[in-house]
Amino acid sequence: MAAKKSARRTKESPGANELLVLELQQIHSAESQLSRALPRLSKAVESEQLRQQLEVRLQQGERIISDVESALEELDESPGRRKNVAAEGLINDAREHVQEIEAGPALDAVMIAAVQKTEHYCIAAWGTARAMAQATNQKAAVQAMERALKEGGKLDEELTQLAEKEITPALLEADAGESEEADEEEDEAEEVESSGGGRGGRSARGGNNRRTSA
Q1: What is residue 113's predicted lDDT score, i.e. its pLDDT?
Q2: What CATH number is attached to the domain comprising 142?
Q3: Which of 37, 67, 121, 182 could form a disulfide with 144 if both were Cys (CB 3.0 to 4.6 A apart)?
């Protein structure tokens, strides 16, 4: 029993500054991953306005990375190499949509949802880091996170408006067009079947009449 206890890993109890560093490192990792993914995601979408919004997010991310690096430098820390697995999962989800969905309103709608999910995660992380920075009197980190929160909230709202005013109506219009086209094809198929069946019926009846006469 004693051997089992000694083999257990000792848990750590980091201080407030250490927790702030960890949060900033996680933010740096998330933004770095997103900055690598956004150019490809931007190329995949059809809406020009959505593409512009993704470009805005890329620029914001570059500033956040720079601000976080400055804040970490003041804390005598580096960004580190630990990958933010939560952000990685959200970004991979967006990448999978690009591979699975054809370019058009459907992909644009799904891409807005994927980007907003990632943005909401980032907003939560920025808020947490700001609170810790305020508690530990790290002014550079406070200012960086406040700007990130302000820009992130604005972008999130603009993406919602874009979805409501442009992307969703375009998706519904495309759905209606596909439904109408499918109905027309079904009607044409029924007409061909009906016409072919009528000729076949007359031919068969004619053949029966000839055999009777013989």
Answers
A1: 96
A2: 1.20.1260.10
A3: 67
The C-alpha atoms of residue 198 and residue 204 are separated, in whole angstroms, by 10
Residue 198 has pLDDT above 60, yes or no: no
Is residue 69 classed as helix, strand or coil in its secondary structure?
helix
Helix H or strand E segment including 197: helix 168-213
Tally of structural domains, the chain? 1
Query: Is residue 154 situated within a structural domain?
Result: yes
Classify residue 189: in a domain, yes or no. Answer: no
Q: Where are the alpha helices (DSSP H) in 75-104?
A: 85-100
Alpha-carbon span 41 to 98, nearest angstrom? 7
pLDDT given for residue 3 in this prediction: 52
pLDDT the model gives residue 18: 94
Running DSSP on this structure, what letter comes out for residue 12?
Answer: P
Residue 104: left (phi > 0), alpha (psi -120 to 50), or beta? left
Give the tens place of pLDDT for each residue, 79-116: 998 999 999 999 999 999 999 999 999 999 999 999 99
CA distance linking residue 41 with residue 23, whole number of Å:
26
Instruction: Annotate 106-156 with DSSP letters as a single string.
Output: HHHHHHHHHHHHHHHHHHHHHHHHHHHHHHTT-HHHHHHHHHHHHHHHHHH
| pTM for the structure as a whole | 0.78
> Would you state the structure tokens that stand for residue 139, as one six-digit string?
């002014």
Flag whether 19 is in a domain: yes
Length of the chain: 214
Task: Evaluate whether residue 6 is within a structural domain.
Answer: no
